[in-house]
Write a structure and sequence with these properties.
The protein is an alpha/beta fold. It has ten helices and 17 strands. The protein has an eight-stranded mixed beta sheet. It has a five-stranded mixed beta sheet with strand order 2-7-6-5-4. It has a two-stranded antiparallel sheet with strand order 1-3. Strand 16 and strand 17 form a beta hairpin.
Length: about 325
């Protein structure tokens, strides 16, 4: 589970590797430099002298606009502006678009121990990719006991007590051509204000525990097409033993939700008892959820037809 106030980080060395950045000056070991802020900054305002609302913890990206601005300044003033900037000790500075770097920046990078890197990508494209990457790596997260599968392109999170049949249902879905993401423990990350992404802990990735058989390697048994490393969560399905006399939703008109990390996801309860084919039921639930997202709600349409029929009956 996520602890209150817990801060996640990614090493600068991982960012360098992920984006194939060229090290121009690395005064410190990049593996020891931890990035904890998912936002980045283009320091145009800072190079002009405005440091209000400035975060040195952000990765700083210098593009063509900043470079052109600096080139128009007298040499002494340009050096002074750069020194003021590097003296704030930003986590790292990235020069985009494979632009040339003058000796002043190289010298200031070494003096203030600020990693200076270069990217081949254009500024806007690099910024977009870096922000997306950092949002995933630094996302708030928690771990839930459950199973995550991809069914017809929908990420389905199966929850329920131990022994209710989550893993067996996942195997049956894999046999039917769907994909396993995680069994037993699902790491869930909030990657945006509307999206949750789930994956398995590295040590149990692609494994399923079946009582009576033991641990099964789904990737080796069913092939690479049967597994996936991560998936957006679209629907939560709670599996529970059938309780005689309990009223279960039979029309699907009531919209139920489950809140995870502050995001409300559509959810349903499926009662489990011998003779019910859970894999087929979950396939239908996935297709029905996808249909709702495309603007068609079968339950509402059915209810509308009933109400219209009752209205016609009353007029006779």
């Amino acid at each position: 589970m996520e602890e209150d106030g817990e801060v996640y980080s990614v090493a600068l060395s991982e960012i360098i590797k992920e984006f194939a950045l060229e090290p121009l000056s690395i005064p410190r070991e990049p593996g020891s430099i931890l990035v904890t802020v998912p936002r980045v900054n283009r320091p145009g305002l800072q190079l002009s002298g405005f440091y209000d609302y400035y975060e040195a913890a952000r990765i700083q990206i210098i593009g063509k606009a900043e470079t052109q601005y600096l080139s128009k300044l007298p040499p002494e003033e340009r050096y002074a502006r750069l020194e003021n900037f590097y003296s704030t000790h930003p986590n790292a500075v990235v020069i985009s678009s494979s632009m040339e770097v003058d000796e002043a920046q190289m010298e200031l990078s070494r003096r203030y121990e600020v990693p200076l890197l270069r990217s081949r990508e254009r500024t806007s494209e690099f910024m977009a990719a870096l922000i997306a990457y950092l949002n995933v790596q630094l996302a708030p997260r928690l771990t839930r006991h459950g199973v995550l599968v991809e069914v017809y392109g929908e990420g389905i999170l199966l929850l329920g007590d131990s022994g209710v049949g989550k893993s067996e249902t996942a195997i049956e879905l894999v046999k039917r051509g769907h994909r396993l993401i995680a069994d037993d423990a699902v790491e869930i990350k909030r990657v945006s204000a509307k999206s949750l992404v789930g994956q398995a802990p590295e040590i149990i990735r692609h494994y399923v525990e079946l009582r009576g058989i033991g641990i099964v390697d789904v990737r080796r048994l069913f092939g690479m097409g049967a597994v996936k490393n991560s998936e957006k969560i679209d629907l939560v399905i709670n599996l529970e033993p059938w309780v005689q006399g309990k009223m279960y939703d039979r029309l699907g008109i009531d919209e139920q939700t489950t809140e995870i990390l502050g995001i409300r996801l559509p959810s349903i309860i499926i009662p489990v008892r011998p003779g019910r084919n859970l894999a087929i039921i979950i396939e239908i639930a996935a297709m029905n959820n996808r249909q709702k997202k495309m603007g068609y709600n079968t339950a509402e349409e059915f209810n509308k037809r009933i109400m219209e029929s009752m209205g016609l009956g009353g007029e006779r």
